[in-house]
Design a protein that fits this description.
Layout (H helix, E strand, L loop, with lengths): L8 H4 L14 E7 L3 H13 L3 E5 L13 E3 L3 H10 L4 H8 E7 L9 E6 L1 H13 L4 E5 L2 E6 L10 E8 L5 E9 L8 E4 L2 E4 L10 H10 L4 E8 L2 E3 L9 E3 L25 E5 L2 H9 L5 H4 L11 H7 L6 E6 L6 E5 L7 H8 L10 E3 L2 E8 L13 E2 L1 E3 L9 H19 L13 H12 L23 H13 L4 H23 L1 E3 H7 L12 E3 H5 L6 H7 L1 H4 L6 H26 L20 H10 L4 H5 L6 H14 L1
Parallel strand pairs: 1-2, 1-9, 2-6, 8-20, 9-21
Antiparallel strand pairs: 3-5, 4-5, 7-8, 8-9, 10-11, 10-19, 12-19, 13-17, 13-18, 14-15, 15-16, 16-17, 22-23
Helix pairs in contact: 2-11, 3-11, 3-13, 4-5, 7-9, 7-10, 13-14
The structure holds flavin-adenine dinucleotide.
Protein name: Mitochondrial tRNA translation optimization 1
Keywords: FAD, Flavoprotein, tRNA processing
InterPro entries: FAD/NAD-bd_sf (IPR036188), GIDA_C_N (IPR049312), MnmG (IPR004416), MnmG-rel (IPR002218), MnmG_C (IPR026904), MnmG_C_subdom (IPR047001), MnmG_C_subdom_sf (IPR044920), MnmG_N (IPR040131)
């Protein structure tokens, strides 16, 4: 289902898209503010659900811009991309179109925690997202800066509760009404840019910040708690000025794996993929950082930055004397620039040049654009419901970096969910939630709304308790039916395809289970496989597929009549077989929690000394709330399913 070519973008941009005056007084179901990774998914999802949607963003040509790294996916993040795709979102297909170097990270570990990742061509990614949005039915895209949210006075019967009614554009000129508004202002809310000792207002280099009026509405009018976070980006380096022969060549996978369940191949042919290069910092880098600290405002601030994507200044100061990895990544097929991942920095430009020239392949390098930092406001996400709606303001949804996350994937995932819910709310349908047991998106949202953030939040596989069930390969089976049947954000084409896949996988598993042979018969069929005699004397094909050295292809060649029609799913079946015991166990645990909903929890329990695996945070919540039943504990914000299982086991044993 990969597109052959993109339509010429200007032909999609009606003049209307740039002039908003005539929209004054118009009522939309949903208005999405911001055309970044959250906003684009939100707008497209709202329109797919059936809402008349307006996307307002500062500049149409920056829709879908990759503000920092030209890459998508990775460990934990790749799972989010697959789930967004399973819910018919854009980023997976955009990644398949724009990818120029595909690799599966974490391959040495099990497929549950593999991280699909691609290096992207920035321009192609932007073109794809813009072309998709500008041709989405029920979606209008306009250029403008939103200055203020229009909200009703609080309801006297529900003090502090407002309802959003629309937005006002900058200069107080135009007001546009909507039943729901999704705010996705990214790093722009009261944004300030930092280079050396210079600070200037901005949301991203070349872009003005979101006006102070918007922060004012959120804080003063709606009484929302906000905080301040920061992030930074490396300088972009002129490719021809770098001696790549001094860096280690890193090749992509020879067979690129598409992100999207609808694609069987990527736009970039395997042999056309571009390599990346690995190099390392030297002691000279640390010296330059230390000598220039007093010239670096950003690093002197207390505001928290992304712990897992730190600046070179933070890396050097936290781990003195170490050599740090620097990846030199292409920015696009025709781009003359390299992105030095690992060298995010905010010192003055002349010192940035001195620093990069301390790294052997960059001894003569030239900087095209200096690195810089950005600080911005975020809204404490504990003030949101699991539908990403502000609890105290009916119809107002928030998604992306504004909720304290970092990363395109985290933004896209929230955007899709907030957009779908904003549409449902506007169309008088109940909002929907995703649980931690069914998706990484559920884990992400639950973490945000129940725990909040103290530093930019990014996704990791370790955050998902049921990660063996929440695999990248099965996101379609987990989410596409729900997206179609319950949410309404999935097209019937994708739904039908997911049903075909689900039924075929089910038929294949049944066929594998029907191959019920003695170990000696299996040995004759598969002489190269060391089948242990200590195992059961009778084994099914599914049992055998769980062996490390047995592939589905081997079984299909031994039993072509029953298995060869499923060859398309060979890898998925292997993964299904390997994880089946874990998934069955997870399923049983979840069902057990549901069955034991009414089990009483002793009221004198000392949660702080319980000899079971519970985090300090969970113990503190349980101690404070003292839920009377297991069901009540399950519904507490911040209590994970894994914690409930441990609690259940403890109470059952001590009864
Ligand atoms: P954005 O992509 O920022 O999009 C916000 C959109 O809203 C923009 O289109 C903007 O024009 C629009 N907008 C804002 N205010 C208004 C308004 N009032 N009216 C209309 N439109 C408005 N992520 C990482 O994972 N690792 C990193 O190291 C990293 N470094 C970064 C460094 C920098 C300098 C920047 C700018 C970003 C960095 N990011 C990093 C963050 C990454 O870019 C974001 O996580 C991601 O883009 C967030 O998506 P979003 O949709 O929430 O916001």
């Amino acid at each position: 289902m990969l597109r052959k070519k993109l339509p010429f973008l200007h032909s999609l941009l009606s003049p209307v898209s740039r002039h908003v005056g005539h929209l004054t007084g118009h009522q939309y179901d949903v208005i999405v503010v911001g055309g970044g990774h959250a906003g684009t998914e939100a707008a497209a999802a709202a329109a797919r659900v059936g809402a008349e949607t307006l996307l307002i963003t500062q500049k149409i040509h920056t829709i879908g811009a990759l503000s920092c790294n030209p890459s998508l996916g990775g460990v934990g993040k790749g799972q989010l991309v697959k789930e967004v795709d399973a819910l018919d979102g854009l980023c997976g297909r955009a990644g398949d179109w724009a990818g120029i170097h595909f690799s599966i990270l974490n391959r040495r570990k099990g497929p549950a925690v593999w991280g699909p990742r691609a290096q992207l061509d920035r321009q192609r990614y932007r073109d794809f997202i813009q072309s998709e949005l500008l041709s989405t039915p029920r979606l209008t895209v306009v250029e403008g800066s939103v200055e203020e949210l229009l909200v009703t006075e609080p309801n006297p019967e529900e003090p502090g509760h407002h309802r959003v009614t629309g937005i006002r554009l900058a200069n107080g000129s135009h007001a546009i009404s909507a039943r729901s508004v999704v705010l996705t202002t990214g790093t722009f809310l009261s944004g300030s840019l930092f280079v050396g000792q210079t600070t200037s207002p901005g949301g991203r280099i070349g872009d003005a910040p979101s006006s102070a009026g918007l922060s004012h509405t959120l804080r003063e009018r709606l009484g929302l708690r906000t905080g301040r976070l920061r992030t930074g980006t490396p300088p972009r380096i002129v490719k021809d000025s770098v001696d790549l022969s001094l860096a280690k060549l890193h090749l992509p996978d020879s067979h690129p794996t598409p992100f999207s369940f609808l694609n069987t191949h990527t736009h970039c042919k395997p042999e056309e993929q571009l390599p990346c290069y690995l190099t390392f910092t030297t002691p000279g880098v640390e010296r330059v950082v230390r000598e220039s600290l007093q010239l670096n405002c950003h690093i002197q601030q207390d505001t928290k930055g992304p712990r897992y994507c730190p600046s070179i200044e933070s890396r050097v100061l936290r781990f003195p004397g170490r050599s740090h990895q620097v990846w030199l990544e292409p920015e696009g097929v025709t781009s003359d620039l390299l992105y030095p991942q690992g060298l995010s920095m905010t010192m003055p430009p002349d010192i940035q040049l001195r620093l990069i020239r301390e790294i052997p392949p960059m001894r003569r390098a030239e900087i095209h654009t200096p690195g810089y930092g950005v600080q911005y406001d975020f809204v404490c996400p504990t003030q949101l419901s699991p539908a990403l709606q502000v609890k105290s303001t009916q119809g107002l949804f928030l998604a992306g970096q504004i909720n304290g996350t970092t990363g395109y994937e985290e933004a896209a995932a929230q955007g899709l969910w907030a957009g779908a819910n904003a549409a449902r709310s506007a169309l008088s349908m109940p909002t929907v939630t995703l649980s931690r047991t069914e998706s990484y998106i559920g884990v992400l949202i639950d973490d945000l709304v129940s725990r909040g953030v103290t530093e930019p939040y990014r996704m990791f596989t370790s955050r998902a308790e049921f990660r063996t069930s929440l695999r990248p390969d099965n996101a379609d089976l987990r989410l596409t039916p729900k997206g179609f049947e319950e949410v309404g954000c999935v097209s019937s084409v994708r739904y039908q395809e997911s049903l075909r896949v689900r039924n075929s996988l089910q038929d294949a598993l049944t066929a594998l289970q029907a191959l019920f042979l003695s170990t000696s018969s299996w040995k004759k069929k598969l002489p190269s496989v060391p089948i242990s005699e200590t195992k059961s004397t009778l084994l099914t094909g599914l049992d055998l597929l769980q062996y490390n050295d047995v592939t589905f292809e081997m079984l299909a060649s031994a039993f072509p009549e029953s298995l060869s029609s499923f060859m398309e799913f060979a890898q998925r079946l292997k993964i299904e077989a390997v994880y089946k015991p874990h998934c069955d166990l997870n399923k049983k645990e979840i069902e057990r929690i549901q069955r034991e909903e009414n089990m009483s929890l002793p009221q004198d329990i000392d949660y702080f000394s319980l000899p079971v695996s519970l985090s300090d945070e969970v113990r503190e919540i349980l101690d404070r709330v003292r839920p009377s039943t297991l069901g009540a504990a399950t519904r507490l914000e911040g209590i994970t399913p894994a914690a409930v299982v441990n609690l259940l086991n403890y109470v059952r044993v001590t009864e």
